[in-house]
Amino acid sequence: MLLSTLRLTAASPVVTARPLEGHIRLDGVLDEPAWRGAGVIDDLTQQEPHPGEPTPFHTRVLILVDDANLYIGFVCHDPEPHRIAVHTLQRDADMGGDDTVGIILGTFGDRRRGYFFRINAAGAREDGLISDRGRPSSDWDGIWDAKTHRGRNGWTAEIRIPAQTLHFAAGRDRWGFNAEREVARKLLVLRWQGTTFDSQFYDLRRAGWLEGVGRLHQGEGLTVSPYGLTRTGTDFGTGGRIWGGDFGGDVTYNLTPDLTGVLTVNTDFAETEVDTRRINLTRFPLFFPEKRTFFLEGSQLFSFGSGLGRDFIPFFSRRIGLYRSRQVPLRAGVKVLGQSGRWGVALLDTSLGRTELTAPANLFAGRVTYDVNRHLTVGTIATNGDPDGIHRNRLIGVDALWKTSSFRGDKNLSFGTWVAGTGGDVPEGRRTGWGVDVEYPNDRWEGSVTYKEFGDGLDPALGFLPRPGTRWLELRGGFRPRPSGRVFGWVRTFHFQCYFTRVAGLDGQTQSWRLFTAPFNAHAESGGHIETNIVPQFEHLDYPFEVAKGVVIPPGDYHFVRFRSEAQSSDRRPWRVGSTVWYGGFYDGSLIEWSSFAGWTSPGGHLQLWAEGEYDTGSLPEGDFIQRLWQARVVYAFTPDLALSSYTQYDSVSRNLGMNNRLRWTITPGNDLYVVWNHGWQHPIGDIARLRLRPSDDHLVVKLRWTFRW
After folding, report:
1. How far apart are the first and last CA of the chain?
2. Measured between alpha carbons, how far is 587 from 625 in angstroms, rounded to an integer?
3. Is the pLDDT of residue 684 over 80?
4. Going by C-beta distance under 8 Å and a sequence separation of 6 or more, which residues neighbour residue 279?
């Protein structure tokens, strides 16, 4: 059986998905006769901590296919099944401390893009899209299902992925494929392919091949997802209740088997979780990630420019539907996403309504990429429109990325470059920007060099650029030894790091520089982490800087040194605690930033309790200040499909205590019920009674979304 389903070739190994004969009941128990005829990967190989060495955690992967679904089965032997770790039942939650299995599917066959699916031993699901620009996020939520079962010899899992969930060229009988298992208590990673330290699971260049999928059929490619909701809230001016309702939805159609069009009408984001509050002690705006589902799905296709990070994002979807922290109604939107041959396409056009601060607007963003060969991808990006609906703004950019995972045998290496410019109602000055980036991201030695320049007239209205008119030089290096012996036997890896960043104006004058060093950074065999840092810094201020209310730092040059001490326990235990302290100089004074967290998970992952706090005290000649931030989260998951969560936050700047409560019930994959209650209290300024709070916000929303597929 094994020789007929798994054959080694000079290029990459191949496993064949066998046709399903019979029926699969998705219950996590692989006892149906159909599994006996499945394609088989007989065992996975250790990748971490000792590549290639045998383990007692034998793992078989079984693969079946019919016209409509791909079925993956895992048989995970464990000599101590009572020690299998589960800390969550939520979808897309952090599974870093859990026993998990996962797969990646390169359905486009280009060894660049694809999907990943992961479940833990309790059946909690995580999924996402893989691109060629680093680790994927779990923003995309596909419609699929999985179940697990724990027994005397370990645990088993069954995964069913409908063909309608995936994009692929019809008739293509070979996809990129890899499988992985993680054993939390051992910090052990097992894989089918990519078993060296330098290999990343999400790197499809290191994956094998899955054959036998040519019979999958996507149907008519039409999906309709309507929603209806009712909402109520309190008018604190009159004391009365306000009632309302709404409806809308999305229509998705596969224009081609691998290119999708999405139409959204009267889009609503009531179920979106609130932003995580943060304290800002810098001169520049903070970055808050996108959390709205409509914009998250396919968002990685808009990624532009190597080495940019959050210093410059040409298209930042939070600019759509949000203006000065207020919601703007999204009347309709159209997206076209996918991969057609060597071409990658991501187009978005939205129509926004009027508010007190904005006029009706049409906002567009588009990105097209082309795979020149197996290493080189070139692309372009364009945006048009201003969120205020009044001014004109446009951006266009071009980038290129060359990437390999076979440098000097099996090392990773990449080269990237980009150039972009804006036009319309933008400031006077240089309206272009450009950059180059070289990265060597490997396990023992790592390094990168990045240079980027942003013109003082570069103004992306639909993007994020906190520091225009600057030139950046970034040098990074790291060394990650794996010690052995009695003295350091408790250490899995050391990670010595040195990052230097210099930011100058277009005139060449240094505005700031920072040297981040990690003379001690240890990741323990237990999963814990201890680190100390020394960070010399320089800041030049042309204008006064109000770091806190009433505390204004005057213009001038400032040299100071910051220190950090950090310790965290392992995330594979029920209790997890950690603390970080930054201390030392701060401009012409001193600053202590202390943050700590504590979390507890019940056996089986049903109940999660999490508390986190930050307490900052600054002492400057211009004045002293104290800032606080407290956060608490309680989650109870009845099953992987039904979870109730409550997230409470308070910060001393806004003096607001906010609570976001959410119930999500996935009735069946693709059909969800949400109940969301948001409540806020305000601590009046100057109130002597420190614990007195007055209600300031109260909203309850019940929303039902259903999915129909043809």
Report:
1. 36
2. 14
3. no
4. 614, 616, 627, 629, 651, 653
Report the pLDDT averaged over residues 625-650.
96
Give the pairing type, strands 510-524 and 551-553.
unpaired
Our CA dihedral for 326, 329, 334, 336, rounded to 10 degrees, sits at: 20
Identify the band that residue 687 occupies on the pLDDT scale cut at 50, 70 and 90: low
Quick check: 156 and 74 in contact, CB under 8 A?
yes
Q: Is the four-CA dihedral 350, 354, 357, 362 of positive or negative sign?
A: positive
Domains annotated for the chain, with CATH where assigned, are 2-211 (2.60.40.1190), 289-479 (no CATH)
Taking only the tens place, the pLDDT of each residue in 405-417 is 989 888 999 999 9
Non-local CB neighbours of 524 within 8 Å, separated by 6+ positions: 490, 491, 492, 530, 570
Coil, helix or strand at residue 591 = strand
Q: Picking from 212-226, 312-326, 535-549, 683-697, which range would have the lowest pLDDT averaged per residue?
A: 683-697
Residue 337 burial class via C-beta count within 10 angstroms: exposed 0-12, middle 13-18, buried 19 and up: buried
CA distance 13 to 108: 18
Q: Say whether 199 sits in a helix, a strand or coil.
A: coil
Structure tokens at 180: 């992985």
pLDDT attached to residue 7: 40
| Token reading at 531 | 């680190």
Read off φ and ψ for residue 134, nearest 5 degrees: 110, -165
- The pair of structure tokens assigned to 282 is 């810098």
The dihedrals phi and psi of 205, each to the nearest 5 degrees, come to: -65, -25
Tokens of 444: 């023992």
* Cα–Cα distance, 327 to 320 (Å, whole number): 9
Q: Which residue from 315, 438, 301 is spatially nearest to 382, judged by alpha carbons?
A: 315
3-class SS string, 261-308 = EEEEECCCCCCCCCCCCCCCCCCCCCCCCCCCHHHHCCHHHHCCCCCC
Query: How much is the pTM?
Result: 0.89
For residue 533, the number of C-alpha atoms closer than 13 Å in the C-beta half-sphere is 21
Strand duo 18-19 + 59-65: pairing: parallel
Q: Where are the alpha helices (DSSP H) in 401-484?
A: none
Tokens 């709070």 belong to 693
Per-residue pLDDT tens for 327-373?
A: 899 999 999 988 888 898 999 999 999 999 999 999 999 999 999 99
Helix intervals (H) in 595-645: none
For the ranges 131-135, 427-431, 689-693, the one whose mean pLDDT is highest: 427-431
Q: Say which DSSP state 456 is in.
A: T
Cα gap 243→260, rounded to integer Å? 37
Between strands 556-568 and 575-586, the pairing is: antiparallel
Spatial distance between the Cα atoms of 294 and 334, rounded to a whole number of angstroms: 10
Write the single-letter amino acid at 618. Answer: G
How many degrees, rounded to 5, is the angle at CA 398 between CA 412 and CA 391?
135
Contact 328, 268 (CB under 8 A): no
